[in-house]
Design a protein that fits this description.
The chain is an alpha/beta fold. The protein contains nine helices and ten strands. It has helices spanning 2-31, 70-79, 90-95, 97-105, 125-141, 159-167, 187-195, 215-227, 235-241, and strands spanning 37-38, 46-47, 56-63, 85-88, 109-112, 149-150, 171-172, 203-207, 231-233, 246-249. The strands form three sheets. Strands 3, 4, 5, 8 and 9 form a five-stranded parallel β-sheet that branches. The protein has a three-stranded antiparallel β-sheet with strand order 1-10-2, with no helix packed on it. The protein has a two-stranded parallel ribbon with strand order 6-7. Helix 2 (70-79) packs parallel to helix 8 (215-227), helix 5 packs across helix 6 and helix 7 packs parallel to helix 8 (215-227). Residues 1-41 and 244-250 have low confidence and may be disordered.
Length: 250
């Protein structure tokens, strides 16, 4: 009886282990879907990095809600004489035109983050198009007619979405360095994740919505260090300074 019990356990393990492996692999691929990129001249492309030969770094901030964290972050950037690119949801920009104005007064660049900040990969194509058009309309009414950069909400992208954006004259921008500041892991942790991994051409993803509580303090540590070795520029400057490394999302 004992021998049969041991054999039964072994058979069960032989079944469970492969299944567990494939489940873990699926979850890994799903969570990293938007980070895996493949170079191609024939397929729709999203900008993920600039040239590694140029020491420029692009600092970007997403804002989709709240009005308390954006101003301190703008003040920190002003103090350090740094310009960045802010990706704003149309709905947020519509509600906070005063902060939008402060962003432009600081010579920062503005890009779109859709209108409702809803995942594009979970929406019908027609709904994605409506969301983008609604966002464009908001920015035009705010006097930002030349806004041409788009970052998909949550970074959820596929070729169809990129093609749709390009058909509307937009450049899709992703990122190459994400310290996950929105999880508030600690000021030092955010700073370390950036400073230990930053490289030439990086596009850094940060946030300025009210959910982030430590980003402004982390910038106090990060900005002087980066400025001592590299230049901090907007996305448009990153593109114009050198031939960029274009990559696509599968």
């Amino acid at each position: 009886m004992r021998r049969l019990y041991i054999i039964s356990i072994r058979k069960t393990l032989l079944l469970i282990l492969p299944i567990s492996f494939f489940i873990a692999l699926f979850l890994f691929l799903e969570s990293n879907y938007t980070s895996m990129v493949f170079s191609s001249k024939e397929e729709p492309r999203a900008l993920q990095t600039g040239s590694e030969e140029n020491n420029a770094i692009a600092l970007t901030f997403n804002i989709s809600h709240g009005d308390e964290q954006a101003l301190p972050i703008l003040e920190r950037l002003k103090k350090e004489d740094v310009t960045a690119t802010f990706f704003l949801s149309g709905e947020w920009a519509e509600r906070h035109p005063d902060i939008v104005e402060k962003i432009t007064e600081g010579q920062h660049e503005i890009g779109m983050l859709g209108y409702e900040y809803a995942s594009y990969t979970e929406m019908e194509t027609a709904d994605v198009q409506k969301d983008i058009l609604k966002a464009k309309d908001v920015f035009q009414k705010l006097g930002l007619d030349d806004t041409y950069l788009l970052r998909a909400p949550n970074g959820h992208l596929n070729e169809e979405i990129i093609s749709l954006a390009e058909q509307q004259g937009l450049k899709v921008v992703h990122w190459s360095l994400n310290p996950n500041d929105w999880t508030n892991p600690g000021t030092k942790k955010i700073a370390e994740d950036i400073l230990e991994n930053v490289a030439n051409g990086d596009i850094i993803l940060l946030h300025a919505s009210d959910s982030v509580k430590q980003t402004e303090q982390a910038l106090e540590l990060v900005l002087p260090e980066i400025k001592s070795n590299q230049s901090l520029v907007t996305i448009s400057e990153l593109i114009s300074q050198a031939e960029t490394k274009q990559e696509i999302l599968e």
